[in-house]
TrEMBL record:
Keywords from the named record: Membrane, Transmembrane, Transmembrane helix
Species, as recorded: Bracon brevicornis
Residues passing through the membrane, by range: 31-53
UniProt KW Transmembrane helix keyword: yes
Identification of the protein by name: G-protein coupled receptors family 1 profile domain-containing protein
Length: 71
């Protein structure tokens, strides 16, 4: 999930830079705003992929195969 989120973040940054090159530099955001935007997108992607509410907790599994029991 983290890899997919970071891939989508990379695509978003690529599209942003492609669109940004079409705009005039004087009208576009400064470097501070651009870096803040990149950090915001990466933080959102990392936060969305973080396992919350113990959804990914370890579970026990018992396998019964003929006469053997595996735990």
């Amino acid at each position: 999930v983290l890899v997919a989120s970071l891939t989508l973040t990379g695509v978003a940054i690529d599209r942003y830079t492609a669109f940004k090159s079409k705009c005039s530099v004087t009208r576009g955001p400064g470097w501070i705003a651009t870096i803040a935007y990149v950090i915001l997108v990466w933080s959102t992607a990392a936060g969305a992929s973080y396992p919350v509410l113990d959804l990914y907790g370890p579970q026990s599994l018992i396998i019964i195969n003929n006469h053997e029991i595996y735990t």
